[in-house]
Amino acid sequence: MRKQIAAANWKMNLTLEQGEALLNDLLAIPHTLTENQEVVFGIPFPYLTSIKTKLAGKTNIYVAAQNCSNKRSGAYTGETSVEMLKSIGVDYVIIGHSERREYFNETNAMLAEKVNLCFEYGLKPIFCCGEALEIREAGTQNSFVENQLIESLFHLSAEQLTGFVIAYEPIWAIGTGKTATSEQAQEMHAHIRAVLTTKYGSAIANSISILYGGSVKAANAKEIFGQPDVDGGLVGGASLIAEEFAAIINSLK
To answer: What is the distance between the alpha carbons of residues 204 and 94, in angstroms, rounded to a whole number?
Structure first.
């Protein structure tokens, strides 16, 4: 069975003390992760080492950087390389979040470079894709997301994509309080898997975890995660509340 993942994206929130307190509260809430379930914490860069240390020894709980540079190294002041992240034991890297695409003009080609570097250094990408409201209203969301996948991932080998993680984010449902219905989420997740099947075959496509990201909360997680092609969530605001995120973790298949 492919991995079922609850990934927290703290974004640019919390001081170190607040983040540690949040983890203390969360870890105090009973939960049991099965072999196929993972929890991933997308942590701001300054706290990665501290939070990694705090989570040491926890089974199936991992730390993700929220971004990385598409350059290996060099005169790129303020950037963080994949090699740096590898050196401090980061497990995952969130690649191509809609906010990075929108606010920092990240292109599909840049994201392909980031994915390549992650594989070179042995980090696991969580590759984000998704459409804005105007694309959804025009009815062209399927071809738009397909193009994101083709331009950023289709140069990869079948071996590299085995067990890969994709996060589908309907941009119109991030931080707006709007949520795609469970049927809309399933429809796009199934489309993504079908696109991957066409290129790589069903065995590879069915090994890939596809997470839903867009106003996931305790109240809707079980219904959304219950869809056959939804393998968990990339969670923003609700991951900053211990009880909410604990309930989301407990909603995994």
So the answer is: 21
Q: What is the pTM of this model?
A: 0.96
Inter-CA distances, 226 with 51, 87, 211, 229, Å: 30, 37, 12, 9
Share of the chain above pLDDT 90, in %: 92
Question: Which one is catalytic: 97, 146, 191, 244?
Answer: 97
| Residue 26 banded pLDDT, cuts 50, 70, 90 | very high
Sign, Cα dihedral of 125, 4, 234, 56 = negative
Is residue 7 exposed (0-12), middle (13-18) or buried (19+ Cβ within 10 Å)? buried
Q: Is the domain covering 4-249 a CATH 1.20.1250.20 domain?
A: no
**Token digits for 89?**
């034991």
Catalytic residue among 99, 131, 169, 244: 169
Residue-wise pLDDT for 211-222, tens only, equals: 999 889 999 999
**Is residue 97 annotated as a catalytic residue, yes or no?**
yes
- Would you list the domain boundaries of the chain? 4-249
